[in-house]
Specification:
- This protein has 23 helices and no strands.
- By secondary structure, it is an all-alpha fold.
- α8 packs parallel to α11 and α20 packs antiparallel against α21.
- The radius of gyration is 24 Å and the shape is elongated.
- The two termini are about 45 Å apart.
- Pfam families: DUF383, DUF384.
Length: about 375
């Protein structure tokens, strides 16, 4: 890495008043550093460089600004740099200052950085606090997210994962679940947003996080929100169900067409199932999911699914749907106190299950690679 004197010289070039060509070479060098783990860890100890990058996002040169944002995206992907970026470089006000600008062309990179910084609770708290300090708040983020074409130069898809990250905090969930605001109802259609897997996954992650608050389950499943079809439709396929099974389903899931396709992304499929599973944690949730005939959809899904980790989640849900009700006093599975020895056994079982899933995934991967190598035309296409 750089000697102290070299670092000082480089830092002296990272100023708004430096000659453009020299400044460009300096930001290009920093960008190269951020592309390596060692480079990121080096810059972790150099808060002045982080501050300089933040300031240079205001440069008149588009190329320099682009390099700075690219560097900040790389740096924010490293968890060890979250605190230096937020606390020492004070990057959040700089980012949020531009987020509301519908003409700002680097808003997508800002969204990516904010998503990275909010991934872990420690700095997620800082992001939410700064949103409030800047008079943006959750309301404006949701408004921008739900306004198609808000920024003509940026897609803002990464606001989805940002919302998902923010809802790991009770305060953010409280806003999303506020019954007077109709926020969650605005987000539901994005579970089937075809244009972006990032936006789609972000919303599904948000819904899953909100379902950890079991006191809202009955409301979420009621006609006021009607969350169930939005979770089930991406998991439903074209399989023909019996008339009796169809009649028991929510209207939107009855008699689906032959070309009905399922969610492409396995991680999103898993999150959808996990959200349904959370809704079965309460007695009223289980009753509604059984009454709404969720089982046939999941039965057909289980036959179709190939990914081991998704199959495992599906089997847990099916087990609840077809199983007996818990004994009296244990109706709310989120409030059941598990004895320490039982909890330990459950963890051991979960670890073994995860090990088995990983083995199955390796086998599946090997089969796919073998299939591709034996059919090179598939690769060309």
């Amino acid at each position: 890495m750089l000697s102290d004197s070299e670092a000082q010289e480089l830092l002296s070039f990272l100023r708004l008043d430096t000659r453009a060509d020299v400044k460009g070479q300096a930001t290009e060098y920093i960008l190269g550093l951020t592309g390596t783990r060692d480079g990121c860890r080096y810059l972790q100890t150099k808060p002045d460089f982080l501050k300089a990058l933040a300031k240079l996002t205001a440069d008149i040169s588009i190329a320099i600004v682009k390099d700075c944002y690219h560097s900040l995206v790389n740096l924010s992907a490293d968890e060890t740099l979250h605190k230096p970026l937020v606390k020492e470089a004070g990057i959040l006000p700089v980012l949020l200052n531009h987020l509301l600008d519908p003409e700002y062309e680097f808003s997508d990179r800002i969204c990516s950085i904010l998503t990275n910084l909010s991934r872990h609770e420690r700095t997620c708290v800082d992001v939410l606090h700064e949103l409030q300090e800047q008079n943006i708040g959750m309301a404006k983020i949701v408004e921008i997210f739900c306004t198609e074409g808000f920024n003509k130069k940026a897609s803002l898809h990464y606001l989805g994962p940002l919302l998902s990250n923010l809802t790991q905090l009770p305060e953010a969930r409280h806003f999303i679940l506020d019954r007077d605001r109709c926020v969650i109802q605005r987000l539901l259609p994005y579970t089937q947003y075809k244009a972006s897997v990032t936006r789609r996954g972000g919303v599904v992650g948000t819904l899953r996080n909100c379902c950890f608050d079991h006191s809202h389950h009955e409301w979420l499943l009621s006609d006021a929100v009607d969350i169930l079809p939005f979770l089930l439709l991406p998991l439903a396929g074209p399989e023909e169900l019996s008339e009796e099974e169809n009649e028991g389903l929510p209207v939107d899931l009855q008699y689906l067409p032959e070309d009905k396709s399922r969610e492409d992304d396995p991680d999103i499929r898993k999150m959808l199932i996990e959200t349904l599973l959370l809704l079965t944690a309460t007695k009223v949730g289980r009753q509604i999911l059984k009454k709404k005939n969720v089982y046939p959809i999941m039965r057909e899904f289980h036959k179709w699914e190939k990914e081991p980790h998704v199959i495992s989640a599906c089997e847990k849900l099916i087990q609840v749907l077809i199983g007996d009700e818990p004994e009296a006093g244990m109706e709310n599975l989120m409030e059941v106190e598990i004895p320490e020895d039982v909890e330990q056994k459950l963890k051991e079982m979960e670890a073994k299950e995860q090990e088995q899933i990983e083995k199955e995934e390796e086998l599946l991967k090997a089969e796919r690679e073998k299939s591709c190598s034996s059919n090179p035309e598939e690769l060309e296409r």
